[in-house]
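note to self: dont lose this again. the chain is below, predicted strucutre after it. 495 aa total, dont forget to put it in the shared folder this time
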Amino acid sequence: MYYLTAIYISIALLVLFLRKRKLNTIEISSFLAALIFPLIAIFLQIFLQGMILENFSLSISVLFLLLIVQNDKNLIDVITGLQNNLAFNIVLRDNLLQESSFSITFVHSRELKAIQTYLDNDTYNSLLQKISAWFINLAKKRFHLFSLNDHLFALVSTRHVKDETIGELSLDIIRRSQEAWELGEIEIQLTFQTSIIRVPDDCKTTNQIRDYIEQFIDLTEIYSDRHIIFAKDFVPENHLRQARIAYALQEKIEKNTLDLVYQPIYATKTKGIFAIEALISLPLNDGDTIQQSEILKVAERIGLGKRLGKCIIKNVFSWYVSERLEQHNLFVQIRLLESFCFEIDWAQNILEIAKKTGMNLSFLCLQLTETAIANTLDNLKHNMDFLKSKNVSFALDDYGSGYTDFGEILEIPFTTVKLDKKIVHAAFVDTVGKRLLEGSVSLFKKLNWPIVAEGVETDEHMTYLQELGLEYFQGYKIGYPEKGDKLLEQLKKQF
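---
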């Protein structure tokens, strides 16, 4: 029986030696722990004559190993068959503890996230499985493959993988964006965006890598027209930056000292400024100034969205009334935060602020993004109908930057659409972008919706957009966001 125990231990150690590079520290520790049982049995057998423990100890050891194998299933995504987030964390920790150099290629598809709401579960899962099989074939033995969520994948390089191989991997992923995925009679086109980090050169800790992942997802929205997100696009220690923004923002709200700026919107019919958009900026102690998009994102993330939304509306209304801008027929546009719209009676809140400040709601245009519409639709329409009865107008803001069922947009009482600067600028990059812009303009013209083009920065932009029949323009070509008093000085000639 001793021979059987010795053979078992020898085989187990041989397997451990041959597969140690593919096992993480938890698996190795568990494997070694399983081998302790037969060794303890041998020592007990020596000191306690007459006890037969070999069979019992071997049974316990095998059972322990089976439990280890079963536990590995917790590290696998049940739909894709790829390693999951938990496995990713274990591999990161092990690699960092070993102080080894490695790279991580992140792959994200915004379309894959968006179409989940339009496909049934079986079709969507079938698509995920096709994509996973393609990734497995691509990774082979050179990369550890992980599914961090349905639309985000990570490929961690094994040792001795050259930079050229990592670059070729990214190119293969980008090329696949040009081909459709066939699901029976359905063909689905997906765009993949990639980013590569090298550890420890770019990131030295797990927190920094997680921070990088969060930024990567955000940056794929900002740079939606790019296949590759570069290291220079990221902000080092972004979690600390967000903490500074959160602290400064909370202080501004409590003291009611928000820094508001206003950007003019030009109308060709009147050959002048017919509206201004209220924007928030946030100066930090290090001299950096945070712009509205980042401020709103942080505010929503830390639960300050409702308070910030009310504070912006109150301050803008008070300034507009104090400067008597109504007599100049100047409209003011304000972005509604998503969390502000979650309140059942958010329209009543706006009405109450208007009464307290004396704001004429006929000169107010509230802006909503596609994302806000998708997440607050159930509570949106009746509030908008109520405010529309009070002569408030509504603009679909940043059209082209999100994903919304167009049928839902048509149900909402918008009076204006604002084309996001990304869709405007894309028209000057390639023919696909040009067709997208021209198609969007044609569609909204058929609906008789006034169109505001954002991101108008050059004479070329202005000329081309006018040729498309657009009449309203916003961007640096028209005017930069300025403090209220400075903007009014610029508008005195028009007034």
